[in-house]
Amino acid sequence: MGAFTSKLPWVGTTIFTVMSKLANEAGAINLSQGFPGFDCSPDLVALVEHYLKTGFNQYAPMTGVPALREALAQKTEQLYGVCYHPETEVTVTSGATEALFAAITAVIRPGDEVIVFEPAYDSYVPAIELNGGIPVFVTLTPPTYAIDWNTVRAKITEKTRLIIVNTPHNPTGRVWTADDLEQLAALVKHRDIWIVSDEVYEHIRFDGRPHRSLATHPVLQERTFVCGSFGKTFHITGWKIGYCLAPKELTTEFRKIHQYLTFSTVTPIQHALADYLKNPEHYETLPDFYERKRDLFLDSIRGSRFGFQPTEGSFFQTVSYQAITDESDYDLAVRLTREIGVASIPVSVFYNQKNDYRILRFCFAKDDETLLRAGERLSQL
User: Fold this and answer.
1) What range(s) does the Aminotransferase class I/classII large domain occupy (predicted)?
2) Can you give the residue range of the structural domain that contains 368?
3) Measured distance CA(62)–CA(46) in Å, rounded
4) 0.90 exceeded by the pTM?
């Protein structure tokens, strides 16, 4: 038997697994991996329990439970004034990562080029390469991580088939502006380019910033797969429930992939979420909830030697340590975990060439006591 050849030879254990394992071993406060440090609403748990006990335990429809698809369509129309037909344009998935993979797979063929804004969430590039695509990187730099649209324009070729968007952005927290949408629309308007928009943090943005979904722009909406997540919104990352909104033609191709990835997603939880979405307060209060946590964490390190600009969205805060040490961000992240007991993520891992701007990412989706203890430890550095 011949040697086994990997399709992703450069992929190893993710940094999130590495840092969380290290945090557990060191007994450190884990502000590395992006999951809430508190439970979801008891009301949501009660709804799941209800559907578990009343017989909703067999396969859901491949496209998702009708009540949940209808609730998603209604929510999207109420928030953004955009109508997606629940039968033909809304699909429930097993997490947003599955939605992203299915959307990329539906579009990309061998040799196609994909514009990726980096630092980038780590599932994008493997999905592109598994489908024979070629990632083309547009590098965003601190402190603003603003997009240079002239650079994007210069990267587009006849082979460009897809652009991946992420707003609010992981790991930098940047939120797209109205100008960003207009610039992107002008680029793709007369080209055969599709868009995958990762909007899992849509409800987590700060200082009065609106979420500008790509669904709200007519030129973009007709060529975009909008991928979302209940996990980030309702503190249920372990339930792995996501969704994709896309025009009928795109949804048809998306579902051809989705049905052979997971076919359908856990049934009682879908019914529970459909009921839970009926109260908009469950997601409308999120910006204030997380903004207070962001501010609490930043106040706790304000006397330290870390530099920062308050994050615009997501539940991540990046900080610069240029005034502290010349260590690589990876080495410092490991040292902070072991020596002062706070785990973070080195932002270089989100860059293709491991660009090291001496920035660490901290997750502030934790209880207040945890954030204050972490801030106290970090301030000792």
Assistant:
1) 29-377
2) 15-40+284-378
3) 25
4) yes
